[in-house]
Structures are given as C-alpha cells and as structure tokens.
Specification:
Elements: H1 10-17, E1 32-45, E2 52-67, E3 72-88, E4 94-96, E5 99-101, E6 109-122, E7 127-133, E8 136-139, E9 149-150, E10 152-162, E11 165-174, E12 181-191, E13 196-202, E14 205-213, E15 216-230, E16 240-258, E17 261-279, E18 290-291, E19 294-304
Antiparallel strand pairs: 1-2, 1-19, 2-3, 3-6, 4-5, 6-7, 6-8, 7-10, 8-9, 10-11, 11-12, 12-13, 13-14, 14-15, 15-16, 16-17, 17-18, 17-19
Amino acid sequence: MRRIRLLLGIGICFALLAGLAPRPAAGWEEDRLFNLRYFNVPRADFREEEGEIGMDVVRAEALLPIGLSDSAFLLTGLVYNGLYLNYRGLSFVEPTPDGDFTERDLPKNLHVVDIVLGGGVSWDERWGTVLVLYPGVHSDFDDVSGKDIYFSGAVLATYQVSDDLTFSAGAYYDDSFGYPQLLPMLGAQWRIGETLTLEAFLPQFLVLAWQFDPRLAAGLKCSVEGSQYRLREGHPWKNTVVEYSQILAGPFVDINLAGDLFLRLEGGFVSSREFEFRDDDSNDKLFDGDVEDTGYAGLSLSCRY
C-alpha cells in the first residue's frame, strides 16, 4: 500500500489567510512556527518473514511566514525527519559483487531534509488560495546525488464559511515513492464549540481536540507517516530504495507551558505498516516488507502561531 507524507505548512497558511477569525485557545494542529517531535515504535515481527524491526523517529521543523500585504504572504521553512532503525533476526542473503548482503549491512538510519516554499492570497473575505512546495533530499546520506531529490506540493482553494468554519479543496503532487502521483485533497478547520475543534486534511490527517482547561487540551489524532529513501549505489543494488509507511492513531494531551509554547504527550496504535527494500530498476525485493501492527508513544514541543 502506497502512502504519502504529511503536508507541512498548509495549516499555518490557513491561519494566515483567516487571520481575523478567532482561533482555538490551543491553536490548530499544523499551525506551528517550530516543532520538535520524537516517537518510538517498538520492535514488531514481519508478517511473512523471520525477523523484527523497531524504529525511533525524530522530526524538527521551522516555518517563517513573511507578510507581503494585508491579503498576501510568503512562507519559507526547513524540515528534518530522521528514521533510526533496529533490526533483529532477519535471515535473508543477497549476493553482490562485494560479497553477501545480510542484515548487518542494512542502513541503521534514514533521513529527509525538505525545504518548504509557499504562500497564499486572500481574494476577499471568504475566498483564498494556498500553494506549498516541498523539494528535498531523501537518503541514507552515504552517497547523495540528484537521484536523492524528491518533489512534493499542493495547491488549494479555501472558503471561509464563518469565523468558525473553513473548507479547502485542491490537489497534491508527490513523487516521494519513486513515481509521480496527483491526488485530490480535502480540508476543513471547524470550531464546533468554545472548547471543541475538528481539523482534517484528507488523506493526511484527522484531529478532534477538546480544550478542557486554559492550559490543557486532549484529543484523538489519526495520521499517515511515510516516505521513500534512496540508498548508496551497490547497497545491494545499483538503485536501491526503501519504502516506509504506516498509520498512527491514538489519544494525545497538550500542555501549555508558557505563552504559545506547548508540550504534547501522545500514544496509540500503529497499523498498515510497510518497510520494504526494493530495486528501483527491476522491482526485486530483499524480503516481504509487511510489518505487524503494534503501539507507539511519543512527545513533541512546539510554538503555535
């Protein structure tokens, strides 16, 4: 199953376009100037192979909105995503000119560095347009070349129904799984009541949040994580790629530490998991990459816009 990466920057674009509208006390989900996130997925078995895999994920992102006028702005930013891996018990053997390729030769960490470029225009009190681009390097960083560069982006039209409800619709382009995809995208930011909000950018994420105290909020979130990474040549094939994807779902608690600074504690269930080594030329695989479902736990520190 192919999965696409979470879109960063669209939430803050919405916030800027709807700058006159009241926001929830804890802010919208992707409405962040910076965010540091860590989560752990413990080792779980491969479904069709002997062996296990565990992972630690580290994410750091920073966004800088630049106002051009009362109705237009630019958005720049930088994102790092690190995938740190822990294998155990894999028994495959892949012959190469340099000898057998086995579990000990698998990469222990994979990296994404994306540049965020975007902006938005508010045409009137209700209609707006958002464009966000994400060129970046997805690699093991052992032998970086032009083949490690991937491109993603989205263009959306926004419509503010009221101070409490905004819809969006558009298209998302992505080649981060090695082939171009153009997919529809739908979004909404709805302040259902004084303390309850619903936010969605489908098929990326869905969040229901409840602000039960001025400094505390809790909710449920479902999101998609995933990307493709290119490995150095001959590791084990000339054009080896790793495809990784999973769905995270579960509760979270947000704690307002000071001003716009928030700490999030989260955990839950991880499903629809794939972690696959593939030859980009022949589509040969090292082993079947379906991974058993498991749990996860994490935390993040963010500054909301």
